[in-house]
C-alpha cells in the first residue's frame, strides 16, 4: 500500500463535487452534474453524467471548459435539456439526445442568469426564470457614463449583485424552435414556477405584497394559463412560501411555508402545507416538523439546494417528500398528502444536497457523509430506508491522504448539550500536546455537519486540533435552540463556544496555552466578540464579519431587517446597536487578528472590516487586512479557485506565525 501524504491546500482543486440530479420519467436512469476545479486556469467547469439508477458505469454527456448545469429529462425520455454558458459566456438553454449526438443551443438570450428549468408535460415547451441583463460590449461601455440609479429599498443581493431595473421573470421557450416568450413582466421577482400535470396551467411564486421591499421573504402563489394570461393569486396570508409542487391530479398545490410578519422569519419552522389550485384555506401537512425543511449544513465542498419537494404515489396514496435539517444532518422525509404519517426516507449521518424521483417513488439523491464530499445515491421512497451509493467520486483522492475521521462529541454547558466535532492531526504522538483552534460557522442559523470539510482537515494536517461547534443559534436542534439568541448575540452562544474551548483544554493532547479562533460571517462576528471579551486566544482570523450593527443596517443587502433583531431602529437605540457590536470592544482586543473580507460582499460590506482594521492599527495592535477583489460573501465556497487557495494559505500562515 502506497504511503499516504499530508493534505495540502491545493487538494481543494482535486475534489469533485456532485450537484443537481434528475430521474428519468420511467425511473430507470439518472442525470447529474459534477463540479470540477481548474486551479491553473482559475476556473470551474460542470459536466453532465448519465447513469442507471440501479448502478453500474456512468457516461459523460458533456465535458469541457463550460458550465453545463441543471439537466432535466424530457417527458418522453429521449433528450435532456440543460443550462450552459458555452457560447460567449452567456447562459442559454441547450438540449442533447440521450442516445448520442452533439448538444444543440435552443435559446439565444442576450445575458443574465437563468434558473428553474422545466419541461412542459407534452414536451413542447420549457419553462424557466430569467433576469434579462444583456451583456455589454466592453469597448462601448468605456465610452459611456458608468453609474447606478437606485430608487428601491431592496436593490442588491449578495452573490447576485446590483439589481438595477432587472427582476426575475417567468419565460417559456418553444421546442424545437427556441422561440422565447415572457409570461410575466414588471418589478416583482418570480422565485419559482412549475407546470400543472395537464400542461394547461402554471403555478408560480411572486412577492405580491403591497410593500414588497419591506417584506422580502414573502411570496404568494399564482396560477395562470400556459400562455401566462389569467394569472390569479390564490393565497392571502403574509408569509414565506417555497418548494412549490402540484398534486398528481392537478387539483392541489404543495409548498413549504409559514405565516409571518416582517422580521419574523427566524421565529418559525417551515412545514409543508397545501392549498387548492383554485384558492381557499391552506392545510398543514407536516405538524411534526421541528426544524427547517431546507439544507442549512455549511461546508467548503458540497452545497445544499434550498428545500425541494417531490410528489409521488406510494400504492394508492399520494405522498410528498421533503428535506429536514436536523442534528448536523439534512435528511429526506415524506408525509401523506392528506396530512401526517411523517416518515424517514433517507436518514443517517448524511448531508443530502439534492434529490429527485419519478412519480412511482424511484429516486436519486446527491448526499455526503463525514468523510465524503458527495456522491450519487439511489433509493425508493417506500419507508424502508434502504439506499445504494452509486459513485465514489473522491475515494481515490481521500485514500491517498493521511486523514483522521472527526470525532463527534456533545459539549456540556449547564443543561445545554452542544453538538461538536473534533478534527485531530494525523499520526499524533503519544504524550504530545497540540495547539487547538475553534471554528464557528455562519448564519448563525446554519450548522456544521456530516460532510467532508477541506479547511478543517487542512488545519489538522498542519498540526492543529480543531473543534467545530453548533452553539445555540444553530439550526437542526429545534426552533427554541435556534432563536433563543435573537437580538442578543454574544451571550448564550459565546458561552457555548467557550464551553467547547474548556472541554478541549481538558484533553491530554491539547496545549491550553495555544488557542486560536476563526469563523466567517456570524462566525466572524463571534471571533471578534471572543477576542474582545477574553485574552485566552493567541491568534484569531475573522472573515466576512458583521462587526457593527449600526452601519450594517444601511449598507447590507437587506440590513434594514436588523431592526427586528435589535428591537428598534438604529437612531432610536444607537447605544444598544453599538454595545451588541463586536467592533465596539476593539480597545479590549489584544489578540493578533487577521481580517479577511471580500470587496463585493453585499451581505456584510467591506466597511465592516475597514473600520475594525483601522481602529486596531490606530491602537497599535497586531492585525492585517486581506481584501479579495471581485468576490462576494461566499468566497470560501464559490470564489475563484486561486482566491480560495490564497485565503487558506493566509489562515494557515497566520496561525503558524502566532499560534
* CATH class wording of the domain at 419-658: Alpha Beta
Strand order of the largest sheet: 31-32-34-33-35-36-37-38
Biggest sheet overview: 8 strands, mixed
Q: At the fourth CATH level, what is the homologous superfamily of the domain at 419-658? A: Alpha/Beta hydrolase fold, catalytic domain
Q: Overall 3D geometry?
A: globular
User: Total number of helical segments?
Assistant: 12
Total beta strand runs: 38
Between the first and last Cα atoms, what is the distance in angstroms?
A: 35 Å
Low-confidence stretches: none
**Second-tier CATH architecture of the domain at 419-658:** 3-Layer(aba) Sandwich
How confident overall, as mean pLDDT?
96
**Overall helicity:** 10-25%
Subunit organisation of the chains: single chain
β-strand percent reads: 35-45%
Please compute the radius of gyration using only Cα atoms.
Answer: 25 Å
Q: Can you walk through the features of this model?
A:
By secondary structure, the protein is an alpha+beta fold. Helix content is 15%, strand content 35%. It has a domain at 419-658: Alpha/Beta hydrolase fold, catalytic domain (Rossmann fold, 3-Layer(aba) Sandwich), CATH 3.40.50.1820. The protein is built from twelve helices and 38 strands. The strands form nine sheets. The chain has an eight-stranded mixed sheet with strand order 31-32-34-33-35-36-37-38, sandwiched between helices. A four-stranded antiparallel sheet has the order 1-2-3-4, with no helix packed on it. β19 and β20 (252-259) form a beta hairpin. The longest helix has 18 residues, at 641-658. It is globular. The two termini are 35 Å apart.
Amino acid at each position: 500500500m502506497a504511503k499516504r501524504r499530508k493534505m495540502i491546500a491545493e487538494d481543494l482543486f482535486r475534489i469533485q463535487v456532485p450537484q443537481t440530479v434528475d430521474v428519468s420519467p420511467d425511473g430507470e436512469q439518472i442525470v447529474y452534474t459534477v463540479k470540477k476545479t481548474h486551479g491553473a486556469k482559475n476556473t470551474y467547469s460542470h459536466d453532465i453524467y448519465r447513469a442507471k439508477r440501479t448502478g453500474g458505469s456512468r457516461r459523460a454527456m458533456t465535458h469541457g471548459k463550460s458550465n453545463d448545469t441543471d439537466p432535466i429529462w424530457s417527458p418522453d425520455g429521449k433528450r435532456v435539456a440543460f443550462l450552459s454558458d458555452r457560447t460567449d459566456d452567456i447562459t442559454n438553454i441547450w438540449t442533447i439526445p440521450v442516445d448520442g449526438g452533439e448538444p444543440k443551443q435552443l435559446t439565444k438570450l442576450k445575458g443574465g442568469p437563468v434558473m428553474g428549468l422545466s419541461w412542459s408535460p407534452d414536451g413542447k415547451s420549457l419553462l424557466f426564470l430569467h433576469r434579462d441583463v444583456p451583456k455589454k460590449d466592453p469597448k462601448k461601455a468605456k465610452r459611456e457614463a458608468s453609474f447606478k440609479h437606485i430608487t428601491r429599498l431592496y436593490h442588491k443581493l449578495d452573490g447576485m449583485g446590483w439589481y438595477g431595473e432587472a427582476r426575475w421573470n417567468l419565460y417559456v421557450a418553444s421546442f424545437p424552435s427556441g422561440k422565447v416568450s415572457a409570461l410575466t413582466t414588471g418589478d416583482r421577482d418570480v422565485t419559482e414556477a412549475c407546470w400543472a400535470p395537464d400542461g394547461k396551467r402554471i403555478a408560480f411564486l411572486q412577492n405580491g405584497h403591497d410593500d414588497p421591499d419591506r417584506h422580502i421573504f414573502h411570496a404568494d402563489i399564482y396560477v395562470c394559463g400556459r400562455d401566462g394570461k389569467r394569472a390569479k393569486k390564490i393565497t392571502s396570508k403574509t408569509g414565506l412560501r417555497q418548494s412549490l409542487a402540484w398534486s398528481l391530479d392537478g387539483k392541489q398545490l404543495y409548498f413549504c411555508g409559514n405565516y409571518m410578519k416582517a422580521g419574523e422569519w427566524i421565529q418559525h419552522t417551515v412545514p409543508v402545507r397545501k392549498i387548492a389550485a383554485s384558492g381557499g384555506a391552506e392545510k398543514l401537512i407536516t405538524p411534526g416538523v421541528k426544524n427547517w425543511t431546507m439544507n442549512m449544513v455549511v461546508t467548503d465542498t458540497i452545497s445544499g439546494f434550498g428545500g425541494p419537494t417531490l410528489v409521488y404515489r406510494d400504492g394508492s396514496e399520494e405522498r410528498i417528500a421533503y428535506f429536514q435539517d436536523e442534528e448536523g444532518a439534512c435528511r429526506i422525509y415524506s408525509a401523506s398528502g392528506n396530512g401526517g404519517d411523517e416518515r424517514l426516507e433517507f436518514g443517517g449521518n448524511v448531508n443530502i444536497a439534492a434529490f429527485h424521483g419519478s412519480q412511482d417513488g424511484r429516486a436519486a439523491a446527491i448526499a455526503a457523509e463525514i468523510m465524503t464530499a458527495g456522491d450519487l445515491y439511489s433509493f425508493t421512497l417506500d419507508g424502508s430506508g434502504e439506499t445504494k451509493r452509486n459513485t465514489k467520486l473522491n475515494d481515490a483522492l481521500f485514500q491517498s491522504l493521511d486523514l483522521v475521521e472527526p470525532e463527534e462529541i456533545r459539549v456540556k454547558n449547564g443543561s445545554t448539550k452542544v453538538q461538536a466535532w473534533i478534527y485531530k492531526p494525523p499520526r499524533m504522538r503519544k504524550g504530545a500536546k497540540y495547539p487547538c483552534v475553534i471554528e464557528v460557522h455562519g448564519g448563525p442559523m446554519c450548522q456544521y455537519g456530516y460532510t467532508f470539510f477541506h479547511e478543517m482537515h487542512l488545519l489538522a494536517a498542519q498540526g492543529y486540533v480543531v473543534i467545530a461547534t453548533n452553539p445555540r443559534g444553530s439550526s437542526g436542534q429545534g426552533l427554541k435552540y435556534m432563536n433563543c439568541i435573537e437580538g442578543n448575540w454574544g451571550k448564550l452562544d459565546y458561552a457555548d463556544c467557550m464551553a467547547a474551548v474548556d472541554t478541549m483544554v481538558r484533553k491530554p493532547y491539547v496545549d491550553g496555552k495555544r488557542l486560536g479562533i476563526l469563523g466567517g460571517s456570524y462566525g466572524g462576528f463571534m471571533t471578534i466578540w471572543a477576542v474582545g471579551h477574553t485574552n485566552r486566544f493567541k491568534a484569531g482570523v475573522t472573515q466576512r464579519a458583521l462587526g457593527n450593527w449600526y452601519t450594517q443596517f444601511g449598507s447590507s443587502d437587506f440590513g434594514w431587517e436588523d431592526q427586528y433583531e435589535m428591537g428598534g431602529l438604529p437612531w432610536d437605540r444607537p447605544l444598544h446597536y453599538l454595545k451588541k457590536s463586536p467592533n465596539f470592544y476593539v480597545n479590549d482586543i489584544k489578540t493578533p487578528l487577521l481580517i479577511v473580507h471580500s470587496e463585493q460582499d453585499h451581505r456584510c460590506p467591506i466597511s465592516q472590516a475597514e473600520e475594525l482594521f483601522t481602529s486596531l492599527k490606530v491602537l497599535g495592535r497586531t492585525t492585517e487586512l486581506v481584501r479579495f477583489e471581485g468576490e462576494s460573501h461566499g468566497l470560501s465556497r464559490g470564489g475563484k479557485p486561486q482566491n480560495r487557495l490564497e485565503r487558506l494559505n493566509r489562515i494557515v500562515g497566520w496561525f503558524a506565525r502566532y499560534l
